[in-house]
Amino acid sequence: MTETIDSTIPTAKVYKDRAFWVGTFLGGPLVAGYLFAENFKALGQPEKVKPTWVIAIIVTIILFGGIFLVPENITIPNQIIPIVYTAITFALFKKIQEEKVEEYTNQGGVFYGWGKVIAVGIIGALITIVPIFSIAFLADSIEQANITTKTYGVAVKHEIDFDNTNISEKEVDEIAEAFFNTGFFDLSVAKYVYVVKNGSKYEISISVMEGMENDTEAIQFFRELRDQMDNYLPNNKIEIKLVVEYLDNVVKVLK
């Protein structure tokens, strides 16, 4: 009699609802896939394990691949994306596994402890984040490798940075010549400029001091500079971006 009762007691552990919330928030969709897969195995549904992993991997690729496609001018709070995919995972657990997990634990099955859940979440985060940062670092390194710097002038060295896969050195020389002709490249202060070609348009980022975007006279100067550059480079539209400290910090765009 005792042997019959013991044989019906579940021996595998399962993950409960709160484990899905904490584990997925820490480690992302891959951890969600792991938790679902482990529960399917414990619940006697091994045929669902492989599809679960396939879905988790695809979702991870789509999610983090999509992050790289978000335009730089769109800011998404860091916590929004984890909260969204964690809430979706939690809802899926409620719909797909909660009832069977409850039945399983009522028969004597037990839950994994929080130490296991947190460890799985951290490991999942490392597995997900390390490749992403590696790809981002590699992409940034490749981009930096294509950046060329040319200096113009003798007494005062003016600098133009550009991506040599985006715009030719000859075109950059023509832009520099236009800057000399307008007097922007002068003998008083060295200027830093970054040029990007977008179709037939030259997007010229010029480094300025913080607060200059609120100086009416300074803005008028750059408007006139843009108009003069149009005259010297008639085949290309000129757009001037005033930046402070770094290129992404655009404080004024003059079209």
From TrEMBL:
Record's keyword terms, sorted: Membrane, Transmembrane, Transmembrane helix
Entry keyword annotation includes Transmembrane: yes
Superkingdom, natural source: Bacteria
Ranges annotated as spanning the membrane: 20-40, 52-70, 76-93, 114-139
Annotated protein name in UniProt: Uncharacterized protein
Organism field: Mangrovivirga cuniculi
